[in-house]
């Protein structure tokens, strides 16, 4: 098994770990509901992506269930 001959200096250790920091994710706004969401992702609040409806949200699903029970 390989064993290091010398102790790594603090400078070299910190230079190696310079890329391990936490990155801040960019945040955009939804064009439909103006909520904050990640760019190139669908909006979790309204279910739109790039100007078209992609999924049915939980709130819409609940209202559909209520409408079917009433009628």
UniProtKB/TrEMBL annotation:
Q: Which GO terms describe its biological process?
A: translation
GO molecular function term, any single one: structural constituent of ribosome
The answer, when asked if Cell wall biogenesis/degradation is one of the entry's keywords, is no
Q: Which domain of life is it from?
A: Bacteria
Sorted UniProt keywords: Ribonucleoprotein, Ribosomal protein
User: Record's Pfam families?
Assistant: Ribosomal_L32p (PF01783)
Where does it sit, as one GO cellular component term?
Answer: large ribosomal subunit
Instruction: State the SUPFAM superfamilies in the record.
Output: Zn-binding ribosomal proteins (SSF57829)
Which InterPro entries does the record associate with it? Ribosomal_bL32 (IPR002677), Ribosomal_bL32_bact (IPR044957), Ribosomal_zn-bd (IPR011332)
* NCBIfam families on file: rpmF_bact
Q: Which HAMAP family match?
A: Ribosomal_bL32
Q: Which family does it belong to?
A: Belongs to the bacterial ribosomal protein bL32 family.
Q: Output this protein's name.
A: Large ribosomal subunit protein bL32
Species whose genome carries this gene: Holospora curviuscula
* Chain's gene name: rpmF
